[in-house]
Structure formats: C-alpha cells, structure tokens
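Example record for the data management plan.
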Amino acid sequence: MITDAPPRAQARLREYARSDALLSLALPEGASVQALTRALAESMASGETAPVRCAGEALVSALADFYEIPAPPLRVLGVRPHRVTAGVCTYQLFGDYLPSTQRIRVWMRTAIREKVSSPKALLNTLLHEFCHHLDCTKLACPESYHTRGFYTRIDHLYHLALGTSPDARKPLRWIKRGRVWTVDWSRLRGS
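Corresponding structural encoding:
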C-alpha cells in the first residue's frame, strides 16, 4: 500500500490532511457484518458473478445503512483488466469507484490464470471501494485520496468483517519515501 502524494493546491491539501488524520471510524455491530462476509466468501465457490454481486450488495447495503449514506450500485466482473510487458504482469485493476455514478466495480478473477480470487482479496477490494464511496458521500473528502487515514479506515472495516480479535490486530506501520508513505510490511509482521 502506497499513499498518494499530497496535492500542491491548498484546498486539496486541506482535504488530504483531513483524510490522513481521520484514523478512527465508528463501526457497525460485528456479528451481522461477519455473517455477510461469510456469505460473500461462500458465494464465490460457484465461480459465477451473479451470486457474488448479490452477496456483495448485501454487505455494502448494510454498511451504507449504518453510515446513513445511499448504497452504491455494485458490478462484479470477471478477469481483472491487466497489462503484460515482456511476459510480466505489470498492472492489474482489482476494482474501482466512480464518484459521478457512485458505482463500485470489482473483478473476481485473477489477471493471468483467470482463477477466482481469494475471498479475502475480494473483500479487501470491495471495502477499499466502499471507503471511496464513504469519503465522497459522508466524510467530506470528494477527491478520496489514498492517505494513511484512508487505508486505516479500510483496515478497521476489514478486521471487523473478518472478526479479528483486538489482541490479534496489528496497527499499520508506515515509512516515508519521498512525498509518499508506504506500509512497512517487515515491521507490521514483526510487531
């Protein structure tokens, strides 16, 4: 995970700083979100997009209800769009969010082998895109920058959805690299 570089325009920099500082998030009741997460994982077994879309819609609708925002439309698509350069996959798109339509799209099959992705990978992508929706509709962050705060909000929802016990959680740790921050995986795994 790498953050966006802070923008240079003052108004956008204020939004970036507000997002970066927002490290906590009210969370819905865990048991219901965890049940919806299990249903999402189970829906992937068939390899078909329709059951995954239904289960994903149920999860994002429950989250949207809790945050009192409109539920975003969800499209679940097949193989991730990707680019191969000199025989190596150099880019792949896991999901996206369009503020103009408030629509989330996620791809459920891996780029090269075209296998159904892991339930945790799809969950993380879905929550990432939902957090863009939350930024745009509730948190007054219409640019929805990838900040440390943005990734921390995803992390809170992700661990709630998986039912990770608080004592097993490890906070994200960051290293500054030029104008951006990146997760320090070695410190995260070792903490």
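Summary line stored alongside the record: The chain has six helices and seven strands.
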